[in-house]
Amino acid sequence: MLKSKDGKAFHKGAIKKSQDTAWSLLFTIIFLSFYFIYLLFRINPKLIYQSQGPIFFLDKYFINEFFSYPGGVNELISSFLSQFFYYSWTGALLLALVFALVTWNTKLFIKSIRPNTPILYLHWVPSLFLLALHSNYRFPLILTLGLLWALLGLNIYVRLAPSNNSLRFLFYIIIHAMLYYIIAGQVFIFSIIIILYDVLYHRRILLPLLYIIFAGLLPYIGASALFVLHIQDAYVMHLTSYNTYRLTWLSWVLYAFFPLVLLLVRISQKSTNNLFGRLFSGRSVPIRLIQGVLFLVLIIIAARHSYDKNGKAFLMIDHYARFEEWEKVLDIAQKGLPISNVVQCQVNRALYHTGNLCDKMFGMTQLFGSDGLFMVESMRGQFALQYSDVFFDLGLINESEHWAYEAIAANGDTAWILQRLALVYLMEEKRDIAEKYLTMLQKTIWHKAWATQYHTYLADSNGFWAHPQYRYLKSTMPVSDFLVSPAKPELCLEKLLENTKNKMAFEYFMAYCLLDGQIGSFIKHIHRLNYFDYPKIPRHFEEAILIYNQLTGGKGIALPGKRISEETIRKFNDFNSIKAKHKNNKEAAYTELKKYRDTYWFYGLYYFKPKE
């Protein structure tokens, strides 16, 4: 009978364990599949690469540099893994795997402190916070990897630490010191959890005090004797910030989760028979389903509220502009999403490169006036590379070079900046300097092929000038030297007009005149249409000429072989009649006039703001 009862009990236990494994595997697949799909299609990890521009060189000097300071090892690993964001699917897979590893280590920790009745699904909570954090395109992978390292050290300590106090303290010192070297300030996450663990679960007081003293002294000793490091940085590096990213409340809540779970598990150990215990520790099918569904709902809520629609649109526009996919830039802009000054500049670049600037510019609401061609001064430092791109397009190669170096000062080396500098020096025929940047790019993972191709142009520049874009840019470069005003870069456009082949300078100058309300300057240079192969007068030029004629009492503009279309004249007369009907009250006329919201007339009436 005893054997029979023992056999039945063992059999029931095996079945229960098998059911636990099956349920755990089912929800693991569901949760990770959701993470992967959300990251792939909603976040699009290649935009993380676009936003952060992580760099990694397959070069021993680059790699060795990371071993000279605390946190460098984790930074090196993060720099390498961040390269997988270059493609959306590899980036989504990487993040899903990192979330899984954090979840697994959290589960091991909870099982260590509550081996008999683990709290179901609680170990998935950190992944919920990580999903929300990585929905921010600026959130660096290094902070998540640092947490993962801390959890790994935590599990090693909890499972392997000796019971003897002296040996336990020595074991802690070794793990803490190693983690400090690997993850810098994030080691304090490990220390806080370990101190609470020994106090709550092992009733130790003296040993945790020694832990506190050691944790407080180690960064000071490191900064004073081992590393070239400021004292403050020795304590907070990679804990409160990384480069320009500063931790938000969400990161601090994530860090606080692990000390709180110690308290939660401690409480639940005494409450398994009440509602609290049954809800969090119950293994029945209904309880599992309720917990699983509730957690999935929380994931969906977190994903919904952390998703940055406008941030994604901005980066998509920036990404397509980087790869010169101008039609895609305009497709996104036409959806009517809120735009920034930087986006306005990229959209106007796209309009020019698609041949639509002079015909469709006012179809894209020009909220920033002439600053929509060149960024406002306050934005140039933050988006120096994008600013450099505008000058490169205009043939102002020296100014493009200047702002590429400003981009390095602001963001460090990125592949995009190195590409810009390589092209700048190839355009300037400074091959020795171009070789420097091409050699650097050849040591990257994703840009090696591009650099190898352009490296061949160092020996034979004919191949480079055979490229239509670079041959055209060479023909558009200034015919004489001049300075570009830092405060008013648009002033360079009129000087660029001395080169009658620079079509972009012409269109940008004319667009600037319209956006800035300088009709007189616009008319002064309208004859330059004849330098380029325009089949007809661009629509916005027609609209401006009609305004000029109206202001000057019907004085005509002579453009041999070209005339204003009857359609534009008809619309202008209708526009004026609507204004007259409402006695020039633009607020009253708005409803009827908005059908002309893609015209220069509508811009001048409703959006133009004269500068003082």
Write a structural description.
The protein is mostly helical and 612 residues long. It has a domain at 314-526: Serine Threonine Protein Phosphatase 5, Tetratricopeptide repeat. It contains 33 helices and 2 strands. The protein has helices at residues 2-43, 46-52, 60-65, 72-81, 88-113, 125-133, 141-160, 165-183, 187-202, 206-226, 231-236, 249-268, 275-281, 285-306, 309-322, 326-333, 341-353, 357-360, 377-380, 384-394, 397-411, 415-427, 431-442, 448-455, 461-465, 468-476, 492-496, 503-515, 519-524, 539-551, 566-581, 586-593, 600-606; strands spanning 241-242, 245-246. The chain has a two-stranded antiparallel ribbon with strand order 1-2. Helix 7 packs parallel to helix 9. The longest helix has 42 residues, at 2-43. The radius of gyration is 32 Å and the shape is elongated. It starts with a helix and ends in a 6-residue tail after the last helix. The mean pLDDT is 88.
Provide a quick synopsis of the model.
With 612 residues, the chain is mainly α.
The CATH topology of the domain at 314-526 is what? Serine Threonine Protein Phosphatase 5, Tetratricopeptide repeat
| CATH architect. name of the domain at 314-526 | Alpha Horseshoe
N- to C-terminal separation?
Answer: 100 Å
Cα gyration radius (Å): 32 Å
